[in-house]
Amino acid sequence: MLSRPRRNRSSAAVRNLVRETELNAGHLVQPIFLMPDAGARLPIPSLPGTFRLGIDEVLREIEDCLRVGLASFMMFPAVPEEHKDKTGTYATAEQNFYLHAARAIKDRFPEVCLISDAALDPYSTDGHDGVVIDGKIHNDETLKLLDAMSVAQARAGFDIIGPSDMMDGRVGSIRRALDAAGFTDTAIMSYSAKYASAFYGPFRDALDSAPRKLQDVPSDKKTYQMDPANAREALREAALDADEGADYLMVKPALNYLDIIYRLHEAHPLPIAAYHVSGECAMLLAAAERGWLDYEQAASEALLSIRRAGADVIISYFAKDFARWQQQ
Ligand code: PBG
């Protein structure tokens, strides 16, 4: 036997020499669910360890994260029902707590990278990412709302706008709106290949944003989010977003879509982001709670696998814990 691959695994020092993939806190983004009440800290039963936080708690959380080298955050608003309507007018309202929170975070920690969520669902009584007109999600009417929402978010201090809505043409539309308003330095992280996935459940619980069971409202997101069966279509979506001026291309979910991450990474020179979504994290946490998996080892392996597949950026509910483990 001339070749013995085990020689390259013979000690920790050797394994360090030949390790192909590195993952550190600098690659990770921590999602944050924001509530209007400044002091709030509300658990999410379907996502243990993640909370809906008021701004006071968010500032404390960010300080903790910075201490372990985690400096990027993706924020989602848990909007009270009374502020929701068909067109999500609260998204750009003067008193919007999400926009105020972004400003407060950037004032206190100018060094952090804040990523927004641009979509209608947190603000919509229908629970859809676009406007529902006559029982259909209206693409081009939604674009106008996304443009206004994105400009408001840029003005509030978000560094990166994150359109998660999957409307056609929204990256170009948002890019033009940002530029026209003078926000040429605000980037766009496009949810390019976002699948109509069953793994968003805990997230929808956190925001109470699931599509409503109403007559004349579609009960799922399949007319805009992608069919899990399709891979080449992801390349098409990504090519459009790249042409329209996206600064990052995202694949979502991550673990069930590692092939898509790999394909986008091979096909595009833009940075690839992967969203390790709530349901993917919840499954692992549930098994760990039962003692069936070791949380630290399994979560670290999951994150490393997403990175190995070709993700430059990973958005994960495990980000803070991983950063802590790495520091120890
Ligand atoms: C909606 C949005 C969703 C997520 C992020 N933005 C859910 C959905 O499309 O219904 C899911 C994230 C997660 O599950 O962690 N704009």
Write down the secondary-structure element order.
HEEEHEHEEEHEHEHHEHEHHEH
Give the DSSP E fraction (strand runs of 2 or more residues).
15-25%
Bound molecules: ligand PBG
Helix/sheet category: alpha/beta
> Which spans of ≥5 residues are poorly predicted at pLDDT below 50?
none
- The span between the termini is 40 Å
List the total number of helices. 11
Coarse shape: globular
**Main β sheet profile:** 10 strands, mixed
Task: Tell me, rounded to a whole number, the average pLDDT.
Answer: 97
Q: Round the Cα radius of gyration to an integer and report it.
A: 20 Å
Helix content: 25-40%
Number of strands: 12
Commentary on this structure:
The chain is of the alpha/beta class and 328 residues long. It is 38% helix and 16% strand. It has eleven helices and twelve strands. The strands form two sheets. Strands 1, 2, 3, 4, 5, 8, 9, 10, 11 and 12 form a ten-stranded mixed beta sheet that branches. Strand 2 (41-43) and strand 3 (51-53) form a beta hairpin. Helix 4 (139-156) packs across helix 5. It is globular. The termini are far apart. The mean pLDDT is 97. It binds ligand PBG. The site of ligand PBG has 11 residues, from helix 6.
